[in-house]
Amino acid sequence: MIQLKNISKIYSNKNTSMTILHPTYLTINDGEILGIVGKSGAGKSTLIRIINGLIRPTTGDVFVDGVSMFSLKQKDINRMRHSIGMIFQHFNLLHSMNAYDNIKLALTIGYYRKEDINDRIYELLGLVGLTGKESRYPSQLSGGEKQRLGIARALANRPKYLLCDEATSALDQETANEIIQLLKDIQHKTQVTIVFISHQMDVIKDLCTRVIIMDNGEIIEDQPIKAMFTHPVHPKTKVLVHSLTYEKPNDVIAYELIYDQKNSGEAILSNMIKTYHVDVNILFAKTLKIQEEWIGYLYVEIHGDDLKKAIQYLKDQRIEVSLYAWCTCNWTLFRCTIWDLISCIWHRYLRPGYRLYHRFYPLCNRTEITFSTS
């Protein structure tokens, strides 16, 4: 287990200071695959470099299996880091060494038994799918093969923890998917704890069992992967999730229905229409595979006298229901006010039979406003 207690990082000089990481508490449990997501500058890379002792925090400490990392001398920190492997975005291989020697160097530095080094190298090459390529230099390997070699090197000394800093960002989608599957297979075989940094939610959903969202040096959300996609809490988390689940239409107010395999959205929707005599217009739908489970996202317009009862019925069936409004506004000619939006919702949904003319302009800036019906 790795515990971060009151970790922060501030860079300063005589005139200014910049807070990269605000005071942070985080526990990384043994055997889990933790995803850390955030845009550039959110503090992800700083956090992971503190975890493996590459940089010291301004405040706080990191505890690895109960041992305080930064109370140790540097040589003891280096020894502790043998239990923490690191995979980099741009591979960081030594181009003057072939695949065999890149792995051998990690084993030598880690004081691996000399008589076992050769067998360990070939074991690792087989584990990452590079059998027969031990004599090739990095320049002779594809991007995916370079990352496989980087993974083999990171696993050389049998680390308990594997840190991945944007490990798939420099790869094409097909190769990235192969690396994700390789990491899943390795975790299943070795039970290594993986911390995976990315700005791509579609990568995180395929790999991780738990996700934290970072923004401006702070952790703004921490949830199991399924809950992150079915019950996102923070507005910025919702933006990340929704970037995968829908394409925004223009000038539409719709209900978002989220359901899983345990509550088939199609049958429930049919029952709602029959029972409450509401009209339903399906705008679009999408499914996402989260780990080994499918999550459905359905975007619909619902009209009828018993609308509130119909919505409550959906909630009673454990379907997550939210109301979304997408509108376009020409900010140079007209500024959309809260009253305009309330008026639009009133006339389209709360006053049956009357439809307000939209005072929105096409081909201009887009604003998204989210409402929760709960």
Set out the fold topology.
Blueprint: E1 2-12, E2 17-28, E3 33-37, H1 44-51, E4 59-64, E5 67-68, H2 74-80, E6 84-87, H3 99-109, H4 114-127, H5 143-154, E7 161-165, H6 173-190, E8 193-198, H7 201-207, E9 210-215, E10 218-224, H8 225-230, H9 235-245, E11 252-260, H10 265-276, E12 279-290, E13 293-303, H11 307-316, E14 320-328, H12 338-350, E15 366-372
Parallel strand pairs: 3-8, 3-9, 6-7, 7-8
Antiparallel strand pairs: 1-2, 1-4, 4-5, 9-10, 11-13, 11-14, 12-13, 14-15
Helix pairs in contact: 3-4, 3-5, 5-6, 10-11
Keywords, separated by commas or semicolons:
alpha/beta; 374 residues; Alpha-Beta Plaits; 34% helix; globular; disordered C terminus; 6-stranded mixed beta sheet
